[in-house]
Design a protein that fits this description.
There is one protein chain. The protein is of the alpha+beta class and 62 residues long. 52% of the residues lie in helices and 13% in strands. Strands 1-2 form a two-stranded parallel sheet.
Length: 62
């Protein structure tokens, strides 16, 4: 891997996207994928906060 590269993702709003994001973020966490930056809006912001906290139970109830 190239050193100095940053990894980021953008999470958009909308209910169906939010449900999908929660599952994908959970899988990425299980694969020990970490991000340097998360940019989000609406439900994506809630999912990003849950991802950073490691609190999947709250995001799966949204």
């Amino acid at each position: 891997m190239n050193k100095g590269l940053k990894i980021g993702t953008v999470l958009e709003g909308d209910g169906p996207n939010g449900a999908y994001q929660a599952g994908v973020l959970r899988a990425l966490r299980e694969l020990e994928t970490n991000y340097d930056c998360l940019v989000s809006t609406s439900i994506g912001a809630l999912n990003a906060a849950s991802f950073v906290k490691g609190d999947y139970e709250s995001s799966s109830k949204l």
